[in-house]
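Justification of resources, computational component.

The compute hours requested in this renewal are based largely on the per-chain cost of generating structure records like the one below. Each record pairs the submitted sequence with a full C-alpha cell output. That output is archived, and it is also reused by downstream analysis tasks.
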Amino acid sequence: MRKINKFATLLMGIAASSMIISACGKGEKTGGQEKGSKTLNLLTWEGYADPEFTKGFEDKYGVKINATYFGSSDELLAKLKSGGGDTYDIISPSSDVASILVDSDLVEKIDTSKIENFSDLNERLRSLKDVVKDGKTYGVPFTWGPDYLIYDADVIKEAPTSWSTFWDSKYKGKVSIWDDISNIYLTGQVMGLDKNDESAIYNMSEEQLQDAKKKLLELKPNIRKYWATAGELNDLFANKEVVMAVGWPLTIAEVNAKGRNLKWTIPGEGATGWIDRLMIVKGSKHKDLAEKYLNYISTPEAQAKVAKVTTYGIANPKAADFMDDALIEQTYVNNMDDMFSKLNFWQPVKDRNRYNEIWTEVKTQ
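The structure output for this chain reads:
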C-alpha cells in the first residue's frame, strides 16, 4: 500500500473542501430536492405570493420566492413586454388578457402531465380554450372570483339591488371604483348590453363606448377615489371614506377582521368576474422550478391555504378537505358552478387600446 505523507493529506483535504464549497454554491441536491440560492420571480396580483402558502415550496426546494405586484392587466402586459423571461418566471394573468399572452408568444406551453392534480381542478376552469393553442396548454387555473358591489352595512341597511345606486346623489364623494377599464365592462352591464350576449361588453361599438363614457362621467361627483390596489380600497373603507365600491372578496375579509361591517351583493344586472391563471414566462431561466411550483400550488393543501389568505374561489375542489365550513361557504368550493352562472367572466377585449383611451378620457375630463 502506498503511503501518503501528511503534507499530501492536507492538500487533498483542502481540495476536497473546495469541491464541497463549490458544489454548495451551485446548489446541492438532497433526496432529489434542489437546495440552493435560486430565486423564483413572480409577477402577480396582490396577495398571490403570501408566505402562508409559498413557504412550503420554499422550504421543500430551498428556493426564495420573490414577488412583484401589478395593479391591472394592462400593467402586467407592460411589465412583461419590458422584461419578460429576463426578469420574471411566473405570472398570474386574468381572463381578459390570457389569450393575448398566448397569441403574442410571451408564455411557455405547460406539460400538464407534470401537474399531478390537474385532472382534479374544476372542469370548467381547466377546459377554457383561451389558454389553449394548437392543442397545447399555456395556463393552469389558480383562483377566480366576482367583482362585487361592496357596501358598508352600518350605513346602507339593505343590500343595493342595482348598480345604479352608485349614481345616487346622496352618495356624493362616497363611492370608489377600480382604476381600470373593467369599469367599462361594468357600465356595459348597467346599460344591459350583455343580456343576450356576454361578449358584447368586451366588444362595444364606438357609439356604445361613448354612451359608457358619458355614464362614467356622470358618476364622477360621487367618486371619492379610483382605487389602484386592494390595500388602497381597504383603507378607504377602514377610514370610512367610502360606503360603496366595486371590489373583491379579499377586501371584505381584511376590513371586517378589523371590526368593520362590510357586506357584498350581486345586483340585478349581474356582475363581472375574473379567472386568474398561472403561466410560465417565455424564456424563464427557471422553467423546471416554475413547473414544480405550478404542481405544488395545485395541490388541495396549498389551494386551501390560498383560499384562507385571499378568500377567493380556488381551482381544486378537493381543497375542501383542508378547510372549515365557513371558508368552504365563503369561497364557494362546494358550489362553484352555481356562482359561475351568476358571473360574466372577463373576456379578451379586441380593441383594448380604445377601451383604455376611453377610460383615460373619463379620468381626465
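The first helix runs from residue 6 to 26. The chain is about 40% helix and 20% strand.
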